[in-house]
Write a structure and sequence with these properties.
Helices cover about 55% and strands about 5% of the residues.
Length: about 180
């Protein structure tokens, strides 16, 4: 039975019989193992395993569920886009179609929006070249700006040693007074 006793600081302490303490630990362990086993069994039923060829071909496409991941990397459970598209790729590969044929069929069926990268032909070539050109122009502008700042000559004022024009009559008078000081 549970016993009650007063501790050193007038607090009440309860203790359980030793036979219940061991059973409680065992029950917690059993409960944790049950949850872990249930989670593992459930995750195996949800996972779909595709071949390496399907994964390689699916890297050319973007998942259409809105996650903006490559089709090979969409991890949504029960994704309404990735799983059917992967199955379609798998069926096409089993039918003997090449990667280029599959890409061509998907572009014809879904449009260029399904591609994960621009093709590099026609207007898509702009998507590859404009960022590089913009970066180079930006670096040139930064270089030119810094160079102009470094080559800037300071403006001298009269307090920095530049002598303003003094009429000759005053220069003679100044020299005469300076000689008399010595």
């Amino acid at each position: 039975m549970a016993t009650c006793s007063r501790g050193s600081h007038n607090s009440i302490q309860y203790s359980l019989p030793s036979r219940l303490v061991g059973r409680g630990r065992d029950f917690c362990r059993l409960l944790a193992l049950t949850f872990l086993f249930g989670a593992l069994c459930a995750s195996e039923g949800f996972a779909q395993v595709f071949s390496a060829e399907v994964k390689n071909v699916s890297e050319n496409f973007v998942c259409q569920c809105g996650c903006n991941h490559q089709l090979s990397g969409c991890g949504m459970l029960y994704c309404g886009s990735a799983n059917p598209l992967r199955n379609e790729i798998d069926e096409m590969l089993e039918a003997g179609r090449s990667e280029k044929e599959i890409v061509g069929e998907f572009v014809a069926k879904y449009g260029k929006i399904i591609l994960s990268a621009p093709t590099g032909v026609g207007f898509d070539l702009v998507a590859w070249t404009v960022p590089v050109i913009a970066l180079m122009v930006g670096l040139i502008v930064v270089y030119a700006t810094i160079r102009s700042w470094l080559n800037r000559k300071p403006i001298l004022t009269s307090s920095q040693g530049k002598v303003a024009f003094i009429p000759k009559e005053y220069q003679r008078r100044l020299e005469k007074e300076l000689k008399n000081l010595d």
